[in-house]
Amino acid sequence: MALSTIERFLLTLTLYNLLVTAAVSIYGIVARPSLTKKIISLTILGDSLNVLAIFIGFRVFSIPPELVSEVELERFVGLAVDPLPQALVLTAIVIGLAVTLFLVFLALQVYRLYGTLDTRRIRELRG
Amino acid sequence: MHAVAVAPALLVAVAFTLPLLSLKVRRAKLFHGVTLATTSAVLVLTVYNYAYVSSSGRPLVYRMGGWPPPLGIVYEVDPLSALLAAYTALVLVAVVAYSSWYLGEDSGLPYYYALLLGLEAGLIGIYYTGDVFNLFVMIEVLGITCYGLVAYYRSTKEAVEASFKYAFFGAIAGLLYFLAAVLIYASFGNLTMGFVAAFSRPTYRLIYWNVASTLIWGNITAATGAVLALSLWTFTFKAGVFPNHFWLPDAHPAAPTPISAVLSGLVVNAGAYAAVRFLYTVFGVFDPLSEFYELSGYVKAVLMAVGAVSALFASVMMVVQTDVKRLIAYSTIMHLGLVFTGFSLGTPEGVGASVYHMLTHAAGKALLFMSAGVAIEVSRTRRIAELRGVGRVYKLVGLSTLLSCLSLVGLPPLAGFFSKLVLYQAYVQSGHFELIAVLLTSSAIALLGYFKVLYPIVLGQPPVGSEVARLRGFGLAAALLIPLVLIVVLNPPVVGGILEQVSRAVTDPGKYIDEALNSFINYVSRLYLTSGG
Amino acid sequence: MIEEVVRYVGLAIVVAGCSVNLIGAIGLNRFRNFYLRLHAATVSTIGGTFYPLVGLALVAFSSSELGSARFFMGGVLLVAAFLLLMLAPAGSHALARATHRAGVARPEPAIADHLSEDRGG
Amino acid sequence: MRRYVPVALLVFVVYIVFSGSVSPYDIVIGAVLAVAVSALTTRFLVSDGGKALSLRRLANLVKYALYYLTVAEFKAHSLVIRIILSRDMPVRPAIVRVPYRAKNPYTIVGSANSITNTPGTVVVDLDTGRSVFYVHWIRAVGLDPETTYREILKVFEEGLSKVFE
Amino acid sequence: MDVTLLLLALFSTVGLVFTYLAVTERDLVRAVVYSAVQSSVYAVLLYLLRAPDIVLVYIPVSVGLYPATLLFLIGKTERVDGE
Amino acid sequence: MRRVIVAVSIAAFTALLAYATTVAGALGYLGLETRALARMFLALAYNPNLRELTAMSPAAVAAIVWDFRGVDTLYETVVFYMAIISALAIYRGVHKVGGGGSVGLSLIVRVVTKLLIPMNIAIAVSIAVHGHLTPGGGFQAGATLAVVSVLLAVVYSVNSFSRVGVEVSKAVALQSTGLIAIAAVVFTPLIYGVLTGAQAYLMQNYVKVDSGFHFPAEVLGQLISGTLIWLNIAEFLAVSFGFFTVFMLLSLREEVVKQPLLGEGHGS
Amino acid sequence: MTPVELVLVYVALPLLTISSVLYLLVVYRGPTISDRVLSADVFFYTFTLFFGIVGLLLGSPVMVICTVVLVLWAYALDIYVAKYLERGELGD
């Protein structure tokens, strides 16, 4: 079975959208001065890469990798999507959450010490 | 053989219990004791592993949970990883002893030690793991503990800001490595380093045609290009070399001194190790048998440029510093630059020399940070001009400052001299005379910098009264003695054999690949026998 | 037989609810004012989501080809519908109150605003 | 003791419906969970245990829910949908006072949620001191308290009073 | 043809648009709301990609906890990004 | 100028990545079939016929997360724990919780939130204990229960935590308890191996060809998938109280934390 | 395709998709922050229904467990934006 042209187009479009999202968020990380905005962009970057990871395990006409009692094993193996990227992404999401939580605590402390979250002003204040 | 898996797991298990313990007991000695006991136990385990691996002559594969490789995670320990892990554990024992002197009765002790144990678990996990994605997880364990420890002095501006910068760019680096790991899975169809390495070599692909044709799922050449670009960015970030060094001179000085010693001495090695593992073992960029051998020219040029620029740039920056810890941090960038130039050669000599340099640098840098830390604690400032001459009162500190500086500069008969000599020989052998110029120039410039540190600590105004009382401490002497012995002992007659074994294992990863594949094949054949019989 | 009836009743509810949802979406676009939009939002949540969820639960309960998992699906949908019925009004009330207190949006045009009168005077 | 029952029942029912199974495993875990959660949270949730276990109140609740989910919602929806679909959107918005008589917080909250859940009326604020809801009404027919009470609140409050008061 | 492909393409485009909005918006509270919407769109993508496990952890983390912590942060610090 | 360079380099890198993934085909046969390894996982996740290779969990993702690649998840939990420990290290020395009455949101929100809590606990526990059968698991359940901690912090106040009976020290203790339970489950096979002299691996769940150790897969006919259920429950405990700790720290008042967090000068 | 699936695919899903795009339009246009959050909220609630329908269509009923989580967190988003607007900060 091969994919039709329109199906391949839609898949490629999705993939490119995800890559461009990652690029836009990296631009946000670099270009925006506020630390809060940088953290928001970082979370978006993580999200887009996670979805990309799930996307490589995707296949059309499929079912999720959960074996319900009524489905036979052979049909399940033949139809289900790839479970491994999902497990990897689960790990990545938790790690991203941990780092982001810590970054928020740090940003609060930065604000307590400097009185601002604007990187340019922080650089000035540090001398 | 279980020692491989137990070492990091034991560390995190103890780290889990420390906050619970702190609710019942408030005595600082308990935390010092528990942590010291744990790190010592891990030292025993890692040394045992090293002995096992080096005597058996083959890498050790531990199947986590009993699962065979492509299904489960394996820890694969070859001489390089075993050596680095054992060395790390040894230096960390010294650091924990130093921490017991440095922190005393600090209120955040359980958190500090939990993070330190997590850091050690992350380091040993990075060295031991044989799985591409598990490496990502361990990098993040290492990362988050480092960020937390850098921010330990939360009320100083520079610590918090440095930690934020480190954590933020560390998070981006981690994400990029995650993408690299996913791309490896996408094209190679599995995540075990040994398997990926086997599939990068056409000969192995032919021999294990069955496995390879089933698992490989995409264009591995295209994927490898992207993976190398992404993962090298991450590894150079972790190692703190030139284009990605920007966080290091802020973060290393801001941490508590024992942590500065760990970060500068040990954590940067993890980045260098991971780069070597990927370049030499997994993708075999310098291995003529590999499909990606044609990339070696580019990789060589990139690594060489990175290493040379960081060595020269950092040595110049060292001289202009007025803050003693910043100066030492720049010296770290310089030494890691030299390590990367050694790795860029692609020869066994270059690898051996670089690993040797990593070891001597770790000991020397830890020792220098710890002895300079004594002076900083006593004189309550980090400005070089105002440091007290602690060396006049406490001879051990003076001696260790002197020896560590001389070792880092590379004066005989200390370890640093020999490692630079071996590095020099490696350059000569592969005909890269421009690197010799880099080595000599950076060392000469750095000499000025080291003398800026050496002079006030050894010969400066001696401390008086209450400042001297601060110098008493059992842990301090023990902490300084371990790396001191190391920089005296690590000379070619002692380590020559070890390094040869290591460099052979790295440049010829045949055994590494064989063991990973064997682990899978053994399992499958035994399964077949039991079910068939 | 009874299964078929339940299934088609559920399906009818789902289809009607989706249309109501679309009407709510149009209303959300057409109204000029936050407080008026609240009513369109209520149309979307209750008529456009709560009832179809219940209808979908009916469809799920009557789909015997799903096996025992249909009870799981129906149960989850019912719990979701119940939570929606409980939480959605509280949420929009909290939002409306905060908006009024913070003065983010004025309830204009309005023929009377007793809340502003009572809080102002 | 009786006041612990309603929370336990709620937890147990939610657990079983959500799990969608009545296997012994789920029943055991659900029961243990119900007891534990009830022991932990009842003191914040239920003040009077006597009212909690009356079947008549439960029947009233069911009756109210049936009326509310069919008649009241249908009327309100048809009004607002007509407004949305008409060309000129004929609205007469106002924020009006609606006095309430209930004392029990569950009655107050239940009737407030009922008001908000019917399109056309949204509780913007409430004043427990004066016993007044402030309701945003999309087509106000009158502003005096009697009219608003009769038009907006009466049915809901009377229905719910039989359950909670 | 699998109808999920159409929805995937549509919602990934929507996600891109909202990423752009969140990155360029100067009012941080609005940016947080945009990023929450973007996350929910991504949750739909994940759901269409047959990853219910991920959706179950992604929604709390990305739609719930990130905006919560970020609003805590904004509430304690400043609301405007840049000049 | 700098921004233009940054934008151009990002765009160039993205274009290269797009080229590698689609035209050059690094992702393989996108959308058509699953990889061989994936088929292996799917076939082995629940397969009582292959005793030495199965994880006995119908939810393939849960099987990978806690059994096939359990070490990843163990250290992922460590990352989460270390982040909270780092936050606690930043907030060390903050003892007094801010006083003062809470002026929360309106009565309606408060009552609804109060009612939500027991239902939410029921839902979260259901997600946790069915983690090996349906989508869900320890972290998912903990994150679902995080609604409670967020809403307690937002709707009520930080005092409400102590009224409910959760304090920072208690939450940390419960989190540690959950993590120690995970560590205990992880180390059990090894301890068994040391005691009996049999071969057993760290984090082992079922029999392997060279090891006979196994956790019970079924109890009284109910599938519990060996370690999976215990790990899920322990992780649930750890994660939910981790979130409690986080939001307790976040909702502390600035006046309370400012003095201890800025007061001491250290290390110079 | 069974009639149920036909109706769901060709009637329910298009309707829901159009209305969700309309909600997103309000999120983009809405003059005030409250408008944005309100329509984001309705968008989330609509997606619970969407999740249910897709789960039924894919023949995998276990997937719908995600709907509950979405409802819970949509409420939470409302509450913290409301609290932010009312008090200027979250927390105590």
Task: Summarize the helices and strands and which ones pair or pack.
The structure holds seven protein chains of seven kinds.
Chain B: H1 3-24, H2 28-56, E1 60-63, E2 74-77, H3 79-103, H4 109-128, H5 132-150, H6 157-188, H7 193-200, H8 202-207, H9 209-215, H10 220-239, H11 248-254, H12 257-282, H13 296-320, H14 324-344, H15 348-379, H16 390-393, H17 395-409, H18 415-430, H19 433-459, H20 466-469, H21 474-489, H22 492-507, H23 510-532
Antiparallel strand pairs in B: 1-2
Helix pairs in contact in B: 1-2, 1-4, 2-3, 2-4, 3-4, 3-12, 3-15, 3-21, 4-5, 4-12, 5-6, 5-12, 6-10, 6-11, 7-23, 10-12, 11-12, 11-14, 12-14, 12-15, 13-14, 13-19, 14-15, 14-19, 15-17, 15-18, 15-21, 15-22, 17-19, 17-21, 18-19
Chain C: H1 2-30, H2 34-62, H3 69-102, H4 114-120
Helix pairs in contact in C: 1-2, 2-3
Chain F: H1 2-23, H2 36-45, H3 60-68, H4 70-90, H5 107-129, H6 138-155, H7 158-164, H8 168-196, E1 218-219, E2 222-223, H9 227-250, H10 254-263
Antiparallel strand pairs in F: 1-2
Helix pairs in contact in F: 3-4, 3-9, 4-9, 5-6, 6-9, 8-9
Keywords:
heteroheptamer, B: 533 residues, mainly alpha, two-stranded antiparallel ribbon, 23 helices, C: 121 residues, Helix Hairpins, 4 helices, 82% helix, elongated
Describe the fold and architecture.
- Chain A is elongated and about 65 Å long.
- Chain A has helices at residues 5-31, 35-55, 73-79, 83-114, 119-126.
- Chain A has a single domain (5-126), classed as Helix Hairpins, CATH 1.10.287.3510.
- Chain A has 127 residues and is an all-alpha fold.
- Chain C is mostly helical.
- Chain C has a single domain (2-120), classed as Helix Hairpins.
- In chain C, 82% of the residues lie in helices and 0% in strands.
- Chain C has four helices and no strands.
- Chain C has helices spanning 2-30, 34-62, 69-102, 114-120.
- Chain C starts with a helix and ends with a helix.
- Chain E has 83 residues and is mostly helical.
- Chain E is built from three helices and no strands.
- The longest helix of chain E is centred in the C-terminal third of the chain and has 25 residues, at 52-76.
- The radius of gyration of chain E is 14 Å and the shape is flat.
- The model of chain E has no long low-confidence stretch (mean pLDDT 90).
- Chain F is mainly α and 268 residues long.
- In chain F, helix 3 crosses helix 4, helix 6 runs parallel beside helix 9 (227-250) and helix 8 runs antiparallel to helix 9 (227-250).
- Chain F has helices at residues 2-23, 36-45, 60-68, 70-90, 107-129, 138-155, 158-164, 168-196, 227-250, 254-263, and strands at 218-219, 222-223.
- Helix content of chain F is 65%, strand content 1%.
- The longest helix of chain F is centred in the last third of the chain and has 29 residues, at 168-196.
- Chains in contact: A-B, A-C, A-E, A-F, A-G, B-F, C-D, C-F, C-G, D-F, E-F, E-G, F-G.
- The A-B interface holds A 26, 29, 35, 38-39, 42, 45-46, 49, 52-53, 56, 84-85, 88, 91-92, 95-96, 98-100, 102-103, 106-107, 109-110, 113-114, 122, 126 and B 133, 136-137, 140, 143-144, 147-148, 151, 154-155, 157-158, 160-161, 163-164, 167-168, 170-172, 174-175, 178-179, 181-182, 185-186.
